[in-house]
Amino acid sequence: MITDKAARLGIGGPIGALLGLATPEPGEGQHSGLRQIGFTIGVIALGAKMARVDGEVSDAEVAAFRAFFQVPPGEERNVERFFDLAKRDAAGFETYARQVADLFPDAPEILEGVIEGLFDIAQADGTIDAAEADYLAKVARIFGLETSRFERAKAAALGVVECEACTILGIDPLATDEQIREAWLRLVRANHPDRLIAQGLPEEAIAMASRKLALINDAYDRLRRERGLVAA
Q1: Alpha carbons 67 and 86: distance in angstroms, whole number
Q2: What is the value of pTM for the model shown?
Q3: Residue 78 falls inside a structural domain
């Protein structure tokens, strides 16, 4: 259970405050567990506040959150509880973003996946308005994401930029065939689920990476077909 695990770990900061938790108790695997539970609760809070930032939380936004965030089996009620608590207002999202960023200083691809999911929520009930765009930009800055990662997340979620496949691969439309292949291989390595599992990242993060990997492979296949390249 999210609540039981988090209580044993004694998660502090805003993520712990969301649960009303107390002092930590040292234990084996604490760091890995902290990452997993902290990520789960932090992303729920960021998603809920993303839905709230434009005013009312719509059914479409809730559905988008559920589609983006893979709820662990048996945790539906806990996730709904945390989401409802966090969606009361959009204030304080910066602190949640900082805490999530601190959990993943060595995994920017996971933070990029979170931004992509937030874009999905923002667009769920129509066009992204100024308040939503500001929220997304601020979270990305707190995450320390490069502009190319932000634009790739945006392209993956919205698909409304020139040469979307180029943006997803982080390359210039005039890139050489070899540069395209190198970018694809680099992103495949960074987002491969086996690599992230070996780092002890949570299941929800692995699911995000798997989704991103499919987009990366699709983008590469489209460019390869357009240029008549032989499959790698």
Answers
A1: 18
A2: 0.68
A3: yes
Please name which of 32, 38, 33 lies closest in space to residue 19, comparing C-alpha atoms.
38
Residue matched to tokens 């893979």: 70
Give the other-Cβ count within 10 Å of 201's Cβ. Answer: 23
For position 80, which CATH number holds? 1.10.3680
User: Which structural domain, as residue segments, surrounds residue 89?
Assistant: 2-161
Residue 139 lies in a domain: yes
pLDDT digits (tens, 9 = 90+) for 89-139: 889 899 889 989 998 888 888 899 999 999 999 999 888 888 999 999 999
When divided into structural domains, the chain yields a total of: 1
Q: Which two tokens stand for residue 115?
A: 């931004």
Residue linked to tokens 């769920």: 124
Both tokens assigned to 231: 């499959």
Q: Give the distance, in angstroms, between the CA of residue 7 and the centroid of all CA atoms in the same chain.
A: 24
